[in-house]
Amino acid sequence: AKATLQSVIDNSTEAELVAQARARLDAILASELEETTPAPDEELEVPLGEEGDPQDSEE
After folding, report:
1. Interval 12-44: pLDDT, tens
2. Torsional sign, CA 6, 8, 21, 15
3. What backbone torsions phi and psi does residue 56 show, to the nearest 5 degrees?
4. Phi, psi values for residue 40, rounded to 5°
5. How far apart are CA 59 and CA 56, in angstroms?
6. Residue 33 and residue 43: Cα distance in Å, rounded?
7. Helical pair 15-36 and 2-11, crossing angle rounded to 10 deg
8. CA–CA dist 29, 22 (Å, integer)
9. Percent of the chain beyond pLDDT 70?
10. How far apart, in whole angstroms, are the C-alpha atoms of residue 45 and residue 53?
């Protein structure tokens, strides 16, 4: 869909059609960005292990 919309934007001479294609492409790109960007209120917890923890020993 993105390639088709980009083609319309690049090649169409109808201003209204280009505007609609640009709006739809922008919506798709914004949606993809939201899917790949963690929300700011999400906490990412990384277990570090403590001394004596079996995860830390390399024996």
Report:
1. 999 999 999 999 999 999 999 888 876 667 677
2. positive
3. -85, -20
4. -60, -25
5. 9
6. 19
7. 150
8. 10
9. 76
10. 17
* Tokens linked to 59: 């024996």
CB 24: neighbour CB atoms within 10 A? 16
User: pTM to 2 decimals?
Assistant: 0.60
Tell me, letter by letter, the H, E, C secondary structure of 2-53: HHHHHHHHHHCCCHHHHHHHHHHHHHHHHHHHHHHCCCCCCCCCCCCCCCCC
Residue with tokens 């830390």: 56
Angle at 57 (CA atoms; ends 52, 59), nearest 5 degrees: 130
